[in-house]
């Protein structure tokens, strides 16, 4: 059988592409970018090293966000019943106000609290910068308490806060004592890390320290799990919850799609942690394993086959015939519809080329959906991931800790004297491993991408342009910041941060939604109007599909 | 009547954006320019995200990417590296440097850093560099916008080079006029330029993002999108026959038009945003005065058709109650228009707090006082919502962020201004001139009509 990727990349040599792109940079920049642009060689040993989680060069336009965005916007944003107060001038709070399309269903918590539609800010003014903002913060917390009587209030620091010396942790401690509810702060000033990734880590540390393990109520259910790194964009969590319920699996908590602080508080009572987005949440899983003895596994509910695989993996973990049988039933019920839709759509998508540049896991996970449609992902990369997300966790011991990472506290975690309870004995773990079961493992994106494809970390606007110009993909996946520059070239662009207005794309129903959406996009009639009749330029006859 | 409600120290659902956003938008309106935010990369990412979701166009804003060490030791080195990289990569004609709360809080002396940067270079190799101070803890996005426009004029047209500008007639037979359009839509900008040329004038609009933020598909790679005010045109501004500057609140403070007047004696016409008949009439009269020419027929006919539709539609909107919010000058313009079509503005709100909104509203329309409208400065959407229920409004008019208020009150919203990120075509909304008033009028009448039709028990299918 001919290898479509190889044929495609042979025509358009990726080495050539790399050389061409780098030639336009000043020497120093080119040297740095050379490490971040790789031609994939998954079988080769040792694994190629990619430059990742390194600071963006000033003046190079990046798609990355800041520490605050990762902490408040990504990890804590989707929790509906914490009053999240942004401590700082108005911009940061405004820009993180409902921009991520996280959905939530307040009917599943008794008080029905939902503060996600609100954007609270201390809206610091000149005088607060000069004389300090602690007084205003204290008032803001008091007012939030008086108005909403929430279970918890969280405070997020923006750039000026650390600089003027406001001690948000002292203020939150004081107010926690005064008001008797859980109040905690995050030092997530924007400049603290290389990207939003630093903010994820800070958020993980904060939830672990202040929330997880504060309520020992044990939920009913035979198979109790936590799903980590799922943010319920476009209703993804609802679809995953549906499948769990159908399979008889009890979700104790999701970090943090459709979540309540109550669910975090007793997350330590679950028996298994599953990680979706490895980048943003692996810290919590690691710490929970150390403190409470809960093992973690990597799962992926994006793509029908991956969903089935992940469900089977859960059943295998419990080594329980009943669950194994139930999961098989669920898969057997769900798959026929998936197959039916795929059969319909595949003739229109087969052999077309996709590129994915997004996030810390999505650029990897979404390749599954494209492969199911017969499409070929020929270039991919993350915006804010680290080397382990590309090369796999096996490289963790080799990653050099630079000054930026050292800024973010690594919590020292020990087994809890009372609550530590290893869910599996070392022998049981060993037994499962022998059967090919992988604990706390993530192989990374590179292992699963074909040889000869392009892997580009923190891709710049300029590199994106060049990539599109050369390879003319049928679809490009990224976020809103890239969207219109891609579409300017007459190439459809799917947002994988916020899904445009679509979703869910997780699970079986989500996969079906995604197939339809991609079909609508790549086969839209508008692409035939791109070239006006008076612009007859043969070079521009875009190559939208590669036919193997 | 100014509103007195319980003020909280926390802002809930802000009705304003931050100053660097306004500056980045203004800088985007200069040809071949790159806006650069001096601070943490999150600022430029967030601001790009917001501008892109409104304009639905690529928006490039560079950052000096502060790290923790930069925050401690100062951002001079980062700023210089960013300038170097932008110059090599983009070959811009201008770089607009706006500060952020981070660089302002640590007290970076940007003018000094820039002087130092230029000292080591050949001037002819450098693009124009314009700096504006925009800490987000002072003012709103509208202030950032105005200050950036003023900084462009102030920096590119220094008084010492006065002689370079006078007496130079590079425009052939047409007279030059400067126009400072305020933070309006690309469609507004295109229409204003059309009006100016229909008077036989050559207009220099600053800024002009009508093409860059609403352009065509690309057939070749573009480092920087096309369009924008040409630097060579900005240099001609001192020899113009007049400057038209929109914004009655803006007119009370320092502005680009005032710099041109004080420095080069360019006559300044302070006008309100020409929304509705009254304010547009004033704008057209200014053009009559500058040119000595009568209003072109096409424009007169637009006005005639507008008034004809006012008459035909009057009863559908007469005495309807409206809430208006947004930037102060936009609120002033919209309220002026609503008053002339018989809609009662019951609440006029802005996140800004110049303290001038009430007096400006009275200036535009002396009858405004009788309307008993509430005026809210430094407002946020929760305050608006708290007071709105009691006012029994029929309609609310403003940008997308007011949608949740409209939804709670179960009244329709007519979207104007910025940001419009929950609808398509925000760039193509026309607010200004007779044609803009026509479109606003039709949208408002139809929205009220649709709402009544939907609410009707029997339904009706013709009017």
Question: Which structural traits does this protein have?
Answer:
heterodimer, A: about 550 residues, alpha/beta, Rossmann fold, six-stranded mixed β-sheet, four-stranded parallel β-sheet, disordered C terminus, B: about 475 residues, about 45% helix, globular
User: What percent of residues of chain A are in strands?
Assistant: 5-15%
> Class of one domain in chain A in CATH?
Alpha Beta
Number of strands of chain B: 14
Form type of chain A: globular
Count of individual beta strands of chain A? 14
**Structural class by SSE content of chain B:** alpha/beta
Tell me about the biggest sheet of chain A? 6 strands, mixed
Q: Count every helix of chain B, treating DSSP H or I runs of 4 or more residues as helices.
A: 18
Oligomer: heterodimer
Mean pLDDT of chain B: 94
Structural features, described:
The complex is a heterodimer of chains A (548) and B (463). Among the domains of chain A are: 4-63 and 445-540, Rossmann fold (3-Layer(aba) Sandwich); 67-192, 3-Layer(aba) Sandwich (Rossmann fold). Chain A is built from 23 helices and 14 strands. Chain A has helices at 4-11, 14-23, 27-36, 67-76, 90-95, 126-131, 134-148, 159-164, 168-179, 196-210, 236-247, 261-265, 278-292, 304-318, 321-349, 362-372, 387-391, 403-406, 426-434, 445-448, 461-471, 480-487, 507-522; strands spanning 37-39, 82-87, 120-121, 152-157, 182-186, 223-230, 249-256, 272-275, 296-298, 353-357, 376-381, 454-456, 475-478, 493-495. In chain A, strands 1-12-11-10-13-14 form a six-stranded mixed sheet, sandwiched between helices. Chain A has a four-stranded parallel sheet with strand order 3-2-4-5, with helices on both faces. In chain A, helix 11 (236-247) links the parallel strand 6 and strand 7 (249-256). By secondary structure, chain B is of the alpha/beta class. Chain B contains 18 helices and 14 strands. In chain B, helix 1 (19-27) packs across helix 7 (141-156), helix 13 (297-317) packs parallel to helix 18 (433-455) and helix 14 (328-340) packs parallel to helix 15 (357-364). In chain B, strand 13, helix 17 and strand 14 form a beta-alpha-beta unit. At the A-B interface, helix 4, helix 5, strand 3, helix 6 and helix 7 of A face strand 1, helix 1, helix 2, strand 3 and helix 3 of B. Strand 3 of chain A pairs antiparallel with strand 1 of chain B, so a sheet runs across the interface.
């Amino acid at each position: 059988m001919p290898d479509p990727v190889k044929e495609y990349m042979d025509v358009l040599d990726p080495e050539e592409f790399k050389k061409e792109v780098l030639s336009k940079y000043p020497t120093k920049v080119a040297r740095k970018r050379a490490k971040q642009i790789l031609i994939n060689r998954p079988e080769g040993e040792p694994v190629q090293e990619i430059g990742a989680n390194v600071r963006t060069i000033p003046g190079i336009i990046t798609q990355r966000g800041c520490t605050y965005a990762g902490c408040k916007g990504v990890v804590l944003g989707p929790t509906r019943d914490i009053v999240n107060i942004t401590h700082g001038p108005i911009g940061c709070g405004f820009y993180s106000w409902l921009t991520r399309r996280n959905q939530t269903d307040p009917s599943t918590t008794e008080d029905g609290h939902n503060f996600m539609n609100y954007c609270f800010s201390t809206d610091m003014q000149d005088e607060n910068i000069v004389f300090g903002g602690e007084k205003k913060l204290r008032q803001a917390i008091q007012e939030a308490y008086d108005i909403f009587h929430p279970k918890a209030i969280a405070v997020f620091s923006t750039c000026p806060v650390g600089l003027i010396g406001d001690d948000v942790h002292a203020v939150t401690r004081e107010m926690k004592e005064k008001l008797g509810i859980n109040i905690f702060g995050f030092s997530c000033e924007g400049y603290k890390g290389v990207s939003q990734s630093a903010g994820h880590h800070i958020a993980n540390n904060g939830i672990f320290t202040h929330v997880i393990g504060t309520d020992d109520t044990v939920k009913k259910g035979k198979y109790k799990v936590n799903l980590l790194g799922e943010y319920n964009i476009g209703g993804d969590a609802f679809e995953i919850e549906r499948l769990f319920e159908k399979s008889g699996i009890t979700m104790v908590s999701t970090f943090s799609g459709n979540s309540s602080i109550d669910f975090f508080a007793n997350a330590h009572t679950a028996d298994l942690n599953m990680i979706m987005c490895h980048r943003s949440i692996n810290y919590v899983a690691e710490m929970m394993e150390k403190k409470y003895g809960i093992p973690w596994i990597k799962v992926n509910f994006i793509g029908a086959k991956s969903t089935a695989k992940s469900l089977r993996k859960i059943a295998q973990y419990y080594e329980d015939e009943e669950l194994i049988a139930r999961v098989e039933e669920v898969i057997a019920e769900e798959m026929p519809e998936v197959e039916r839709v795929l059969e319909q759509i595949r003739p229109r998508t087969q052999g077309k080329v996709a590129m994915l540049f997004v996030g810390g896991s999505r650029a990897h996970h979404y390749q599954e959906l494209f492969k199911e449609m017969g499409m070929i992902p020929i270039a991919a990369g993350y915006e804010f991931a680290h080397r382990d997300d590309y090369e796999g966790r096996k490289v963790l011991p080799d990653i050099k800790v630079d000054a930026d990472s050292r800024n973010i506290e690594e919590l020292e975690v020990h087994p809890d004297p009372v609550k530590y309870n290893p869910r599996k004995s070392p022998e049981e773990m060993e037994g499962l491993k022998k059967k090919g079961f992988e604990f706390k493992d993530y192989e990374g994106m590179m292992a699963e991408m074909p040889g000869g494809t392009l892997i580009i970390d923190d891709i710049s606007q300029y590199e994106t342009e060049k990539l599109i110009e050369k390879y003319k993909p049928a679809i490009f996946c990224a976020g809103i910041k890239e969207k219109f520059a891609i579409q300017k070239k007459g190439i459809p662009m799917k947002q994988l941060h916020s899904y445009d207005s679509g979703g869910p794309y997780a699970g079986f129903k989500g996969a079906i939604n995604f197939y339809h959406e991609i079909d609508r996009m790549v086969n839209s009639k508008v692409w035939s109007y791109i070239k006006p009749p008076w612009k007859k330029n043969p070079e521009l006859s875009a190559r939208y599909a590669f036919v193997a | 009547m100014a509103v007195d409600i319980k003020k909280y120290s926390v802002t809930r659902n802000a009705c304003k954006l931050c100053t660097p956003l306004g500056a980045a938008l203004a800088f985007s309106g200069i040809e071949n320019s790159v806006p650069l935010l001096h601070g943490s990369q999150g600022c430029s990412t967030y601001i790009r995200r917001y501008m892109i979701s409104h304009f639905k166009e690529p928006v490039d804003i560079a950052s000096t990417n502060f790290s923790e060490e930069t925050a401690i030791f100062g951002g001079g080195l980062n700023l210089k590296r960013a300038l170097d990289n932008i110059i090599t990569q983009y070959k811009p004609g201008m770089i607009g440097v706006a500060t952020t709360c981070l660089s302002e809080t640590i007290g970076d002396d940007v003018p000094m850093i820039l002087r130092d940067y230029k000292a080591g270079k050949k001037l002819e190799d450098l693009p124009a560099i314009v700096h504006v101070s925009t800490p987000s803890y002072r003012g709103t996005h509208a202030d950032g916008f105005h200050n950036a426009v003023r900084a462009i004029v102030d920096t590119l047209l220094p008084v010492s080079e006065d002689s370079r500008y006078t007496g130079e007639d590079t425009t052939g037979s047409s007279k030059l006029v400067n126009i400072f359009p305020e933070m309006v839509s690309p469609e507004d900008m295109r229409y204003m330029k059309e009006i100016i040329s229909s008077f036989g004038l050559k207009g220099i609009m600053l800024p002009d993002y009508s093409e860059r933020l609403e352009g065509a598909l690309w057939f070749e790679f573009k480092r920087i999108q096309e369009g924008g005010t040409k630097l060579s045109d900005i240099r001609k501004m001192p020899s113009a026959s007049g400057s038209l500057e929109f914004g009655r609140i803006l007119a009370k403070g320092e502005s680009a038009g005032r710099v041109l007047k004080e420095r080069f004696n360019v006559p300044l016409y302070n006008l309100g945003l020409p929304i509705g008949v009254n304010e547009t009439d004033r704008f057209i009269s200014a053009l009559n005065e500058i040119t000595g020419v009568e209003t072109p027929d096409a424009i007169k006919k637009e006005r005639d058709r507008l008034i004809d539709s006012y008459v035909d539609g009057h009863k559908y909107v007469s005495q309807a109650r409206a809430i208006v919010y947004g930037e102060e000058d936009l609120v002033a313009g919209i309220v002026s228009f609503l008053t002339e079509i018989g809609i009662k503005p019951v609440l006029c709100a802005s996140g800004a707090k110049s303290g001038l909104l009430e007096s400006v509203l009275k200036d535009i329309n002396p009858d405004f006082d009788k309307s008993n409208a509430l005026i809210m400065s430094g407002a946020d959407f929760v305050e608006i919502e708290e007071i709105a229920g009691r006012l029994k409004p029929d309609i609310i008019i403003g940008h997308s962020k007011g949608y949740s208020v409209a939804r709670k009150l179960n009244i329709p919203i007519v979207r104007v201004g910025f940001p419009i990120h929950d609808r398509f075509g925000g760039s193509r909304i026309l607010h200004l001139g007779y044609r803009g008033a026509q479109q606003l009028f039709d949208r408002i009448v139809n929205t009220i009509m649709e709402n009544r039709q939907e609410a009707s028990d029997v339904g009706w299918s013709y009017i």
